Amino acid sequence: MNEASDIIDLVASVARTIPGEFSFDGDRHGRVTAWITLQNSTDLVAAARALKAIGARLSMITALAGQPEGINTIAYHFDIDGSTVTLKVGVEPGGSVETIVPLYRNADWHEREFMELYDLHVSGRADSRRLFLDETVDRRVMQRLIPLSVLSNAASTTMLFEKLIVDREKSR
Amino acid sequence: MKSFDMPVGPLHLSLEEPMYFRIDVEGEEVAGIEITAGHVHRGIEYLTAKRNIYQNLALIERVCSLCSNSHPQAYCMGLEKIAGIEVPERAQYLRVIADEIKRAASNMFNVAILAHIVGFESLFMHVMEAREIMQDTKETVFGNRMDLAANVIGGVKFDIAEDRIAYVIAQLNKLEPILVKEIIPLYETNSSILSRTRGVGLINRDQCIDYGLMGPVARGSGYAYDVRTAAPYAVYDRLDVEVITYPDGDVWSRAMVRLKEVVEAIRLMRLCLRELPEGPLTAGPLPFIPAGEAITKVEAPRGELIYYLKTDGTDIPARVKWRVPTYMNWDALEVMMVGGRISDIPLIVNSIDPCISCTER
Question: In chain B, what residues touch A56 (CB-CB under 8 Å)?
Fold first, then answer.
């Protein structure tokens, strides 16, 4: 088991080789949570490869779409001996990132899932079939449609009106 | 040799919930497998961004019934991390008890189903009857048999007073000998169990790492990763958790890991009840959660459950994302099944302890 200081050194050595921001914090059990935000999404595969070389395994991928700043973010969460490293890349709406399945086999389902739920694409994949939603359901359906809970709460919240205004601005 | 496609599902005796498989078969041998998911996709992650932080606690507990305690626990840990909330010691011990009682009941359910698939109905009934001891305990302590509603942000909402401690210990005293003297020896030695499960559904340690497998499936192949020791939370670092592993990577090994983990869960519950400190159950009244992000992990009955939370200072979370251990296990069925017999399919599927509610959310 690596010590927290070893993990920080290892992850910092990866972060130094790729343009971006690096930060970390620890917990009372000596485990580290590190964050690397890549300047260029084209560095994703190189960064994922470098993390694999220091013993990282892929835990999860999170897509954060519809952010206020207009850029979608994909966060790749890795585990090294119980510590967590999150690699973030920014992607323009409708933009794409390179697949990391050749490096991490378990990225397959994660990539398929965020492709069908959000307006994000992954290039270099051999198989991009839907994972959960039927092929007849439009892409990014959850970004696009208004849920019943928002409609029914229209009298007490501003969510419906904000959604309508944002959609109208986008369609102009 | 004639080959054909065999559809299995979406409902099947070895599945607790619906999933659809298309299996290529050559003679009696499985040649390939394709999985079609989505039958219970409910968009729960999306719903978390439509409810407030406190309402989500009830929603998240309903992702899955068998590991229903793990989800709110990981969720609360994330918010506590963002807000810098220190959970009181008594609550930390009580969280471990809730965690372990769910693990005991969940693992016993899975090994009972194994007996049912093998056709050993009396063993199935025996394990389910023994499991009822844990179900009764949950009902008495938490008021519920499945969704415990044990966690709140900053602590727990249940307590175990002195008289209840005696009751829980009596329940553990009732279950442990049945498990150690009757159930485990049967799984270890009975020829019906052994002939159907030894050498079946093989996956080795390197393949587990390649597929990102966690929990009893990976530990049944000798991969000794357990969040409770690798990234301890609550008070697991004080409990000297034994990580159970078996080397062979077959259906039997995965069942044995689960059974031995029930024994370990009983030990951990006893230890927590003995060491339970006095003190408050929560850090205070309903807390304000500032903007921030956090990642938390817990060892659910099926393995590592990881949560990512992002908050923006309002009471609606900006993003809540989680990945359950079953998520990777599905893909690995290809390794476990190809080359195996058709008759072994239900046993192999059951051996990953499939949770479709968790996977699809």
Answer: none
Q: What CATH number is attached to the domain comprising A53?
A: 3.30.460.80
Q: Structure pTM?
A: 0.85
Domain count, chain A: 2
Domain boundaries, position A107: 4-139
**Does residue B237 sit at the A interface (CB-CB below 8 Å)?**
yes
d(CA A90, CA A92): 7
Out of B212, B327, B360, the one facing A57 most closely (by C-beta) is B212
DSSP code string of B294-352: EEEEEEETTEEEEEEEEE-SSSS-SEEEEE-THHHHHHHHHHHHTTSBGGGHHHHHHHT
Does residue A129 share a domain with residue A170?
Answer: no
Kindly state whether B318 is in contact with chain A, defined as any CB-CB distance less than 8 angstroms.
yes
Domains, chain B, ordered by start: 53-320 (1.10.645.10)
The string of pLDDT tens digits covering residues B223-282 is: 999 999 999 999 999 999 999 999 999 999 999 999 999 999 999 999 999 999 999 999
ipTM of the complex: 0.84
The DSSP bridge partners found for residue A24 are A34
Question: To the nearest whole angstrom, how far is the Cα of A84 from the nearest Cα of chain B?
Answer: 8
Please give, rounded to a whole number of angstroms, the shortest distance from the CA of B38 to a CA of chain A: 4
